[in-house]
Design goal:
It is a single chain. By secondary structure, this protein is α+β, with helices and mostly antiparallel strands. The strands form three sheets. Strands 1-8-11-7-6-5 form a six-stranded mixed beta sheet. It has a three-stranded antiparallel beta sheet with strand order 2-4-3, covered by helices on one side. About 4% of the residues have low confidence.
């Protein structure tokens, strides 16, 4: 997931939404800036820029002093406020987190007001009325500016615009509250040593203990996922799984349902049938009907594989427990997936970890991407600390990126890889600064922050990653490269500023290298002996790659369909808990394992609903394109530098300067196809 602040409402995941509609608009009046806001100085500077734009006589308007100047303005707000807002997700200082949350709310509210500002809109329209002869990025930027003004309601009467602004401000407030509740959830499940049968001593040593000796299992991935994978006690897996699915609580369920009602009001004011059509209009899919048709086409194929998976997994459970009547439950999936991998393919996930010490994985990721894309990374952490650069935690490292051919500096990225209290709990990339060419010729170089939650090293053992975690790391670094390798001139098209149902494609592309013998050979080594990754182990992993793939695809479809159904009602009245259970019954009929359990409310912690709203389908949609684009590397070689540089030039450097579909066509030299996607999911039988 990638999270650019101003072009997409932040928080879970690379998030799209509200600010996409505001990305080409303006600035606020001073009365809208709270004097004690952490962003007040930045917003006052931006106001001065707006006044400069407005002071230009209409007869003297040109692209740079109007449309280009707005792009300058938005880029400057980002540079001035993004780090403050980012710290809300990673800082250990409660006051600093609160300042970040307040800055995010103030900046977003300010932009909402100014999206409705007539004087700036008239200035843009006056320039557009001259019918300027533009091409390339300039032509596209003007078209997007006019489109986004329409989507911000500038064709509405003043009273309706005021109502719309109020709705959007309330949406902003509730969304931040929803996300904060997820991030600051401190649920821990107390368990005895007997209840933790199957868990390693290293895992247990990393858990907090109570005064009475109970082990506290938290909901961060390094604590939650090993229980699902390895704990022999089904009652324990059940207890921890239920706690995980109840994060956020009923208060977040109520917040979510208020948010859905407000989105419906927003869509109605703007003339859309429902929120889904409003959100999807600016994505590759264009409308909700196309998304539902996408699901309708794939679900029969996925269901066929899921049924086979279900039979295989329930048989494994019955054989393991000796209970011929045993049923498969959601908290069983990962446990029996691991057991089947071990028994059928001789793949022991804990043995696999021993070949992925984090430092070696970082070295390997760097080696692969530097070679493929013609780059060089330089660790400047010590220099940054010496120079007083604010690194928000001792775990954080910072790297500078150079073009290996000419030595040109391209950007920087931060790595923040271990969990801690009140830190963002998943994996994501934040775009803290975007590539931007200013009107005076200066160039702002991109800055990205990659946030993960991998187990911390101990005195006895380094941080060892599961293969899934290695895949996640490569995925997020794909977003990082998309940000840093951008050559777009304008802020609004830089880096990951592509359609939100295409933004995952570059990150999904990079996942493929963790399945490559050539790539793994560059870094996968046993943390004690230095022995290379065994070929027979990799062969087993490849043979078992599609184990459970049908049920996993159904999980993704379930989440996507839940998201869509939340946004298809014109009145926005959605009982989300009932919808979750109804959709589970319709979707799975006993096969879909990821929802439908009474007294759970997974949606209360489904952070994508405030950022990727009506957009979760994009993970599968973009995977179609990622799978097809990857075929070039399969043909030319996984480590072929020419293939890597071609991909960098045709996709990564372009950002949003063209529609995603046109980028893919240009890269492939043909229309995209779905065959590679079906093979990727193991559905091509």
């Amino acid at each position: 997931m990638t999270i650019p602040f101003l072009r997409a409402r932040t928080c879970v995941a690379a998030l799209a939404g509200l600010m996409l509609a505001l990305s080409s608009v303006a600035v606020a009046q001073s009365s809208t800036i709270p004097p004690d806001s952490p962003a007040a100085a930045a917003l006052r500077r931006a106001e001065a820029s707006v006044q400069n734009i407005l002071s230009v006589p209409n007869s003297q308007r040109n692209f740079q002093n109007t449309i280009g100047a707005i792009d300058d303005l938005l880029a400057r707000i980002e540079l001035d406020t993004n780090m403050t807002m980012f710290l809300a997700y990673v800082s250990t200082d409660a006051a600093e987190r609160e300042r970040g949350q307040q800055a995010e709310q103030d900046v977003t509210n300010w932009l909402i007001d100014l999206a409705k500002r007539e004087d700036l809109y008239r200035a843009v329209q006056a320039y557009a009325d001259t019918r300027p002869r533009l091409a390339g990025e300039q032509e596209r930027l003007l078209a997007h500016t006019l489109r986004d003004y329409r989507r911000a309601g500038m064709n509405l009467p003043a009273a309706q615009r005021e109502t719309l602004a109020g709705v959007e401000k309330e949406l902003n407030k509730l969304s931040i509250e929803f996300e904060t509740n997820i991030r600051e959830d401190e649920t821990r499940v107390p368990l005895t040593r007997d209840e933790l049968a199957g868990m390693s001593d290293e895992y247990l040593d990393g858990l907090t203990r109570t005064a009475t000796g109970m082990y506290l299992v938290g909901m961060s991935y390094p604590e939650f996922l090993p229980i699902m994978d390895l704990c022999e006690k089904e009652t324990t897996r059940n207890k921890v799984w239920l706690a995980y699915k109840r994060r956020g609580g009923q208060s977040n369920v109520r917040l979510l349902e208020k948010i859905l009602a407000l989105r419906a009001e927003q869509a109605q004011l703007l003339g859309y049938a429902h929120p889904a059509d409003y959100e999807i209009e600016v994505k590759m899919a264009k409308n909700a009907d196309n998304v539902m048709a996408f699901y309708d086409k794939l679900r029969p194929m996925v269901r066929k594989k899921a049924l086979r998976d279900y039979d295989e997994f329930v048989t494994a459970k019955r054989n393991h427990t000796g209970n011929r009547q045993a049923e498969l439950h959601p908290w069983d999936f990962s446990f029996y997936q691991n057991k089947l991998k071990k028994d059928t393919y001789a793949v022991d996930g804990e043995k696999v970890r021993e070949y992925f010490p984090l430092d070696r994985v970082i070295d390997g990721l760097f080696s692969v991407t530097q070679s493929l894309f013609g780059l060089r990374y330089e660790d400047i952490t010590a220099q940054a600390r010496t120079n007083g650069r604010p690194l928000w935690h001792e775990d954080v490292r910072v790297f500078r990126v150079f073009d290996d051919a000419n030595g040109k500096q391209l950007g920087e990225f931060y790595l923040d890889l271990h969990p801690r209290d009140n830190k963002y709990g998943h994996a994501a990339q934040w775009g803290l600064a975007q590539h931007k060419v200013w009107s005076d010729g200066r160039v702002t170089k991109p800055v990205a922050a990659l946030v993960c939650n991998f187990t911390k090293p101990t005195a006895q053992k380094p941080s060892l990653l599961s293969h899934d975690e290695v895949e996640t790391f490569f995925h997020e670094f794909g977003h990082c490269l998309h940000t840093i390798l951008s050559e777009a001139r304008y802020w609004q098209f830089s880096g990951t500023a592509v359609e939100r149902d295409f933004v995952e494609a570059p990150s999904q592309m990079l996942e493929n290298w963790v399945w490559s013998t050539d790539a793994l050979g560059t870094f996968a080594q046993h943390y004690k002996t230095g022995a290379p990754f065994p070929q027979d182990l990799l062969d087993g992993m490849l043979a078992g790659r599609y184990l459970g793939s049908g049920m996993m695809a159904e999980r993704q479809f379930y989440y996507g369909l839940f998201d869509m159904n939340c946004h298809l009602r014109s009145d926005g009245v959605v009982d989300t808990t009932q919808l979750a259970h109804d959709l589970w019954g319709e979707q799975g009929s006993g096969v879909e394992l990821y929802a439908g359990v009474p007294e759970t409310h997974f949606q209360a912690a489904f952070g994508h609903l405030t950022g990727y709203q009506a957009g979760y389908y994009g993970y599968q949609w973009s995977l179609v394109y990622a799978s097809d684009m990857f075929q070039r590397f399969k043909e030319l070689g996984m480590l072929d530098p020419a293939a890597g540089r071609y991909y960098r030039q045709k996709i990564l450097s372009r950002g949003g300067t063209q529609d995603g579909l046109d980028l893919v066509r240009g890269y492939l030299g043909r229309e995209p196809e779905m065959d590679a996607y079906l093979r990727h999911l193991g559905l091509d039988e």
